[in-house]
Specification:
The protein has 166 residues and is an alpha/beta fold. The chain has five helices and four strands, in the order E-H-E-H-E-H-E-H-H. The chain has helices at 21-32, 52-61, 89-94, 119-142, 150-160; strands spanning 9-15, 37-43, 83-86, 103-106. A four-stranded parallel beta sheet has the order 2-1-3-4. Helix 3 (89-94) links the parallel strand 3 (83-86) and strand 4. Helix 1 (21-32) crosses helix 4. It is globular and about 45 Å long.
Length: 166
Amino acid sequence: MTTAPESRLRVLFLCTGNSARSQMAEAILNVKGKGRFRAESAGSQPATHINPLTVETMQAFRNGWTGHPPRGLDDLEREPWDLVITVCDKAKEACPFFPGQPVIAHWGMPDPAAVVGDADTMRKAFRDAFYLLSHRIELLVSLPIAQLERLALEARIRAIGASEAT
């Protein structure tokens, strides 16, 4: 596997709006990866602003996290990525080709921003998304990435997408 010159694995999380799931995944991996990863996120059709419940949820688990404005794929598809992970079905369908043959995996999950209900129901949807992403990222960071051949690594990262939070 080709890694960036800085030797950290570059990971891009993609969803449609880049206002919830992909931003959470970026933040969680940058913390749990303990310097081994450099995660970023984008959306195939970026929202105008980050979902306030994303910020509220992340601050509950990571004090001070505020996210960044949603962004699209402009120029990102030209950058060298080691891993590209889609977290929604629409982003999987819109995923462009990336140079250098990064490992591409799909970790589909419900969109917490699509949940309709009272405030508690919506907050629970965002907490559930956080727990699922956190679980999957813990599995990712525990992989012996340097010891795995590309196809084995790709299979294991894709299998993580089928895992559920405990």
